[in-house]
C-alpha cells in the first residue's frame, strides 16, 4: 500500500481553526496534512509575495493547497517551492469533496446531446439579424441554428439566411409546414429538415439534408414507424421525433410514445422538442429542462429542439447545455445526478450555510478593527466588527445599529451587501461578502482573474470601516488595515512531525476598500 499523500494547506489566522477541524476528518490512510498559517488574518488577502516570504514547507510535503479566494499564482508558487500548488475550494466545508472523497471526480466537459435552437420569427428578420442571433445562440451553447417558418408568412430571404449562417461555420436546420420552404432551405445548404411526415418523405431522397421524422398526428405512431422503415430500407440518415405534448394535452402519453419508439427501434437517432413543456408551463424552466434532459439521457435521445419565446425561458440554451453535461457525467458514473456542481441550482444551494452561528461568534471575537464583516447562517444575517456583533433577518433593520448615518458611501455599500445577504438567507443560498450570489446557469457568472486582487471601487470612501466624520480618533487610527499587527506564521502538522513556525517579516499593511485589499503602496 502506498504512503499517504502529505498535503499542506496554506491559510490565515481566522480560518485556521475551521480548517484544522475539517482536515482532521480526512482519512489517515490517504492523507497526512500540515496547516501553514501565513500570519495574516484573512486568507483571501494573502499575496504571492507574502506566501513566498513567510511560509516554509515541512519535510515530506507532496502537494500544496491554497484557499480558493487566494489571489496568488499557483504556477509561480509551484516553481518557488518545487511542489505542485493548486487552488482549493472557496469554502472549507467543501474541502473533502474537492479532494475526491465523495467517490468520484466531476468532469462536466463532455456531453452527447445536440442542441437545435430555433429562431421562431426568422421570416420577419433580415439575414443580418438572423446571423447575429445565430452567433449569439451558438455562443450560449447551441449546436444547430433552426430557422422556423411561420404559417402564411413569406420567407423570401430564406436562402440568403441559410447561406449567411453556413458561411459563419454554423450548422443549420429549417423547420416549416411549407414543403416549398423545406425544399428551398435544403437546396441552399441546410443540414437538417424539420419535420417530415410520411406524406412529405419524398423530399428526404431529393437532398442531402438529414430529415427529422414525425408522425402524421402525435398519437399516430404507426405512421412514424412506416417513415422509419422506409429510411432504414434506404440506408439513409434520419432522426425520429414522436412529438412531446404539453401538460393536460397529452404530455404523459407522449412520454410513453418516446419509450415505445425507443423499444421498437433501439439504435436509431431520436429528437425531443422540449419547448412544449418549457414554454407552455409557467414554472421556472431550469427544473423542467433538467427533468426532460434526464429522460433523454435514459432513452439515448441525443438531439433536442429548444425554443425561447417567453421571458421565463430566456436562459433555455444555457439550461439545456448545463443539464446535458450533468446528465452525461451522472450516466457515465452510473450515479444519480447529485453532486455534479451548482449549475442546475439557481434558487437554492445544497449547503447554503458554510458556518454555524457559534463559528461566526468565534470569528467575531477575534476581530480587532472596525471593518464590518457580514455572514449568513441558519439563524440569520450576522454583522460584526470589533465593537458589535448583531444578528437579524431584515437587511434594513440593521441600519440604526451600524452608526453610518453620516457616511453615505459606507451606508450605500452596507445596504447593498445586507440586501444581498437577506436574499441569500431567505432563499437558502450561499452568501460571500463582496461576491455576487451564484445563480447557477440562470445567470452569467462574472469572469475574473484568480491570480490578482479585485480592483478597488470607484470611490475610496465606499469602504467597510466606521470612518465618517463622527468616527473617533481611535477608529480613524485603526484604518491602517486588518493585517497590521498580525501574529507570526505557524505551521501545524496533522498525523505527522511538527514544524518550526516561520518567523519572517510581517506582511505589508493595507486597508479594505469595499471589502477589497488596497496596499499602502497603492497596489490592489
From TrEMBL:
Region: Disordered; residue ranges are 455-524
Q: Can you give the residue ranges of the Pterin-binding domain?
A: 96-361
Q: Which residues fall in a compositionally biased region of kind Basic and acidic residues?
A: 492-509
User: Where do the TM regions start and end?
Assistant: none
Low complexity bias located where?
A: 469-490
List the InterPro entries hit by this protein, alphabetically.
Dihydropteroate_synth-like_sf, DUF6513, Pterin-binding_dom
Protein name, UniProt field: Pterin-binding domain-containing protein
Protein source organism: Methylorubrum aminovorans
